[in-house]
Amino acid sequence: MADVSVYTPAEVVEETGFSIDTIRYYEKIGLLVDIDRNAAGQRRFTPEDVGWLGLLKCLRDTGMPIAEMLRFAELVRAGEHTVADRVALLEEHDRRVKAQIAGLVERQRYIKSKISYYRSVR
Amino acid sequence: MADVSVYTPAEVVEETGFSIDTIRYYEKIGLLVDIDRNAAGQRRFTPEDVGWLGLLKCLRDTGMPIAEMLRFAELVRAGEHTVADRVALLEEHDRRVKAQIAGLVERQRYIKSKISYYRSVR
DNA sequence: GCTTGACCTGGAGTGCACTCCAGGTGGGAG
DNA sequence: CTCCCACCTGGAGTGCACTCCAGGTCAAGC
Questions:
Q1: Which of B2, B16, B24, B97 has the lowest tally of Cβ within 10 angstroms?
Q2: Where are the alpha helices (DSSP H) in chain A?
Q3: Is the whole model's pTM more than 0.70, yes or no?
């Protein structure tokens, strides 16, 4: 029976929705550090790694550029004394997400009005 | 006194928020057709052109790929009998925008919870 | 009349975020 | 024992949507 607290690459792909190539890429650029390896050199992920990838996925899918995720990753690695900075970074991002949603809602109104217009002339 | 129903490239940039390079690029790939020229070969846009660019901006800013804007542009050019197809295309896009907003709202919750967590351990 | 600057063209270059590939290793199922 | 398959590496390639550049034209304000 497999150790449920260790994930193979395939399991992480399944779990996070990232492709294996993306995960390797993230490790290469330093978004992911200190990933365990088995004797054969294959990656073995902890639940913490999977959780971290989940957060990265959330940030990526809300439009955070990699450069900023990297800054965040460095804050996390730097230790507890950076918690305030992390909060600041996330709050800034949260504001951008809010603006993004507002913009989308606004534009959706325009699209809907266009649809109504087309319906009226059909 | 300038004719208010004719826009220079600079005015269109001001009006639409697109860069002049993007506008030329859109003309090159066929998102923009039959743009008037003055004697010197410079572009002169009509209010209709500006309106069309405004719609393109909305579609672009809600994530529609150029290939699909191109399909839409072709429908518009093909004439009145494509109105139903245009509605279908816009409705499909509208559903994607809706999903996008929902995803963003959901992820924003996660970001906010992360912020709360950091605040609690600070 | 001259300068300035907005505009033109074709084509090359950029930035981002992956994605793919060749060539190779190691371990478990049959 | 052999096959297969998941995995490995470094590095090249991709797709999208612009963005920039060199070299040139024209029109209007001073």
A1: B2
A2: 9-16, 20-29, 47-61, 66-78, 83-121
A3: yes
